[in-house]
């Protein structure tokens, strides 16, 4: 549990829509940020009266911002317009907080803002990267941070800067230690997909507030999650410095449902643990500075992570141990941090085979066609051979499939010219991206209904959409199907077992993943 607040930003062009959104945000937020730079028609009389009512009815605090375009605002604003807004509008009578940029703070020599607002946030933004002179910016913002009303050190410093890799958020995150020592309230935010982890973990380390969007469509800064996700999925207000941290390490994390799967499991077991997305480009730097207990720069309870495209092979060189399944497949998808050691596993093979055996039964002697020769196909081939199935792999480029022939001795056939019926196969598995929602492949299929006649079972590893074109083709000829969600959940359940030793709540995890996929 922590004392941090969740602030929902509201931006709308006219007063009525603005008020409607504030009213909605007030139901879930502790603080609502009123982005006055978004408003084209202010209609102060309606606005001020309604703000007063909303504030009284909802027990929330209102924060006002008036940002110029170069600081992430919606409008071109001259310096004079900004000064006029802050000194002459009567908005301060209806809100609790003012959030001003460094140049306004510097101009406010007589401390006027500090005297009329209960509390002031002094903020700086960098939409390109995390500045090297971060400490200096912090010092400028925190200077004379004593509020004239209360005579207390009660003003807040906010620094929001773009992270282009997960490690970029480190310096912002570490700034909290200094702020804590100096009793300076701080809101550090690394923006963008690579900075999401700072938004989730900030409150647990003493950040004063974290920002969220009301819904997916109304995010006002890059990387903002919705307030519902912050509260229901990541439980950000329940976390503290002792919380166990797990995560997803991948180049792109935005579309993953793994946070929903794993956080549902932690919630079910009432664990003080959270699973956080880390968008990582430079894996060596991430492992050295954030993960490896011998070299990492932050003292946190990091326990393990899932790892996926494009790092599943590279990760192996940073590990102290790789289990036999991962070694045979040639890729690691799960890392456990135990003491100061990093241990690697692969749960794709078990995750793949479990739903298949549940649906098909004993695979010994079964004839299985696998489409694709990438990482997932390798896990399938390994698992199928372990169960004594006869595997044929269909690929579009046989050169790229050579390692499958060498490592597993499977037969390779050409996917592109494969127009023959597949009736000689008991099971057909798609391990290519054909049929995926992303990348314009949704209407593609590795095989048609005509080809699938007589096949005993069709298993598509693609999980988004829930029902793929291949599965629909199979249904036309009454072939039973399994979708990719079953494997996704089973491999995540196996990861949970490795990390926590507990049996995962598969039903709750499936429901959470499905909820995200259908949202
Ligand atoms: P990968 O390593 O990139 O391999 C993809 C394979 O598909 C390669 O053999 C590739 O051939 C082939 N391929 C790509 N585009 C194709 C196309 N348009 N036509 C024919 N073949 C094509 O990817 P992966 O990690 O193995 O993943 C493959 C699929 O499985 C993805 O859709 C992924 O979402 C899914 N998956 C699901 C789960 C789950 O839990 N349900 C787990 C892992 C993966 P080239 O080498 O010629 O490019």
Description:
It is a single chain. The protein has 519 residues and is α/β, with parallel strands linked by helices. It is 35% helix and 20% strand. The chain has 19 helices and 20 strands. The protein has helices spanning 15-26, 44-58, 79-88, 102-107, 112-116, 134-142, 170-181, 196-201, 227-233, 258-268, 283-291, 324-329, 348-360, 375-386, 402-408, 449-452, 469-476, 484-500, 506-517, and strands spanning 5-10, 31-35, 61-65, 97-101, 119-126, 156-162, 185-191, 209-212, 244-250, 273-279, 302-307, 321-322, 334-338, 341-345, 367-371, 390-395, 411-414, 427-430, 457-460, 481-482. An eight-stranded parallel beta sheet has the order 7-6-5-4-3-2-1-8. The chain has a six-stranded mixed beta sheet with strand order 10-9-11-13-14-12. A six-stranded parallel beta sheet has the order 17-16-15-18-19-20, with helices on both faces. The protein is elongated and about 85 Å long. The structure holds NADP nicotinamide-adenine-dinucleotide phosphate.
List the helices and strands and how they pair.
Layout: E1 5-10, H1 15-26, E2 31-35, H2 44-58, E3 61-65, H3 79-88, E4 97-101, H4 102-107, H5 112-116, E5 119-126, H6 134-142, E6 156-162, H7 170-181, E7 185-191, H8 196-201, E8 209-212, H9 227-233, E9 244-250, H10 258-268, E10 273-279, H11 283-291, E11 302-307, E12 321-322, H12 324-329, E13 334-338, E14 341-345, H13 348-360, E15 367-371, H14 375-386, E16 390-395, H15 402-408, E17 411-414, E18 427-430, H16 449-452, E19 457-460, H17 469-476, E20 481-482, H18 484-500, H19 506-517
Parallel strand pairs: 1-2, 1-8, 2-3, 3-4, 4-5, 5-6, 6-7, 9-10, 9-11, 12-14, 15-16, 15-18, 16-17, 18-19, 19-20
Antiparallel strand pairs: 11-13, 13-14
Bound molecules: NADP nicotinamide-adenine-dinucleotide phosphate.
